[in-house]
């Protein structure tokens, strides 16, 4: 069934598909931003060649990789667009560019006659860990604590000490972000994944010093 879905997706896209809507097939090329090494994570964050960050669900994806995918490596994703433009549900992922999935980048919507997923054996990834996710607007950043105002008007504080300093330094009040992490027994929210969906207004107050 999964191979049929891949074939259908390939028939309807090129690696430069634009103006996609939820459920539309997509090919994403870029570099892996998170995690440091892909293991049992159900999602990855990819910085596309357009410079944007994409949250990509890989929990059910075929993995066309000969070794481990690590942060900074080139990655290609064949999938469908999610409910938001920066969300994708992957059908297959590969190391390198679209050619690693048997796809040929093109400037038109005409797929290459040879565009098909290679028939090599599929090695399923480890069972994914459950993840929590908080979507909201940054209210403040104090040290490694990020306070978000969620869409249901709750105020949530997240420990972002596992994120790199460059990410924290870039956060400003008013930014729309999503933070992710693995549930803990003490129920503390420690983020180890991040994606920014909207930059706040320049008029927003500056972030707290750390």
Output the keywords:
5-stranded mixed barrel; 210 residues; mainly beta; 2 helices; single chain; disordered N terminus
Characterize the structure shown.
The protein is mostly beta strands. 8% of the residues lie in helices and 36% in strands. The protein is built from two helices and eleven strands; from the N terminus they run αβββββββββαββ. It has helices at residues 2-11, 165-170, and strands spanning 25-34, 43-48, 53-57, 62-64, 74-81, 87-95, 132-142, 145-150, 155-159, 176-181, 193-198. The strands form two sheets. The protein has a five-stranded mixed barrel. The chain has a five-stranded antiparallel beta sheet with strand order 9-8-7-10-11, with no helix packed on it. β5 and β6 form a beta hairpin. It starts with a helix and ends in a 12-residue tail after the last strand. The model is unreliable at 1-18, 106-128 and 202-209 (pLDDT under 50).
> Which regions contain 5 or more consecutive residues with pLDDT less than 50?
1-18, 106-128, 202-209
Number of helices: 2
Question: Structural class, from secondary structure content?
Answer: mainly beta
Give the terminus-to-terminus CA distance.
51 Å
**CA radius of gyration:** 18 Å
Kindly state the percentage of residues in helix: under 10%
Q: Characterize the main sheet.
A: 5 strands, mixed, barrel
Side by side, the strands of the main sheet go 1-2-3-6-5
Order of helices and strands: HEEEEEEEEEHEE
Number of strands: 11
The pLDDT mean sits at 74
């Amino acid at each position: 069934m999964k191979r049929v879905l891949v074939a259908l997706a390939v028939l309807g896209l090129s690696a430069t598909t634009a103006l996609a809507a939820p459920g539309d097939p997509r090919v994403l090329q870029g570099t892996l931003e998170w995690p440091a090494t892909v293991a049992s994570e159900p999602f990855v964050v990819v910085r596309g060649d357009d410079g944007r960050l994409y949250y990509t669900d890989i929990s059910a994806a075929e993995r066309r990789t000969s070794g481990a995918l690590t942060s900074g490596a080139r990655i290609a994703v064949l999938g469908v667009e999610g409910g938001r433009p920066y969300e994708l549900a992957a059908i297959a992922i590969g190391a390198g560019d679209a050619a690693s999935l048997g796809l040929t980048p093109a400037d038109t919507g005409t797929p290459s006659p040879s565009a098909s997923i290679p028939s090599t054996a599929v090695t399923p990834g480890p069972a994914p860990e459950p993840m929590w996710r908080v979507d909201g607007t940054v209210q403040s950043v104090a040290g490694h604590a990020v306070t978000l105002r969620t869409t249901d008007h709750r105020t949530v504080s997240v420990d972002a000490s596992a994120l790199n300093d460059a990410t924290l330094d870039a956060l400003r009040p008013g930014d729309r972000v999503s933070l992710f992490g693995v549930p803990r027994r003490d129920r503390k929210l420690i983020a180890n994944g991040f994606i920014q969906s909207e930059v706040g207004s320049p008029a927003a107050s500056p972030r707290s010093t750390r």
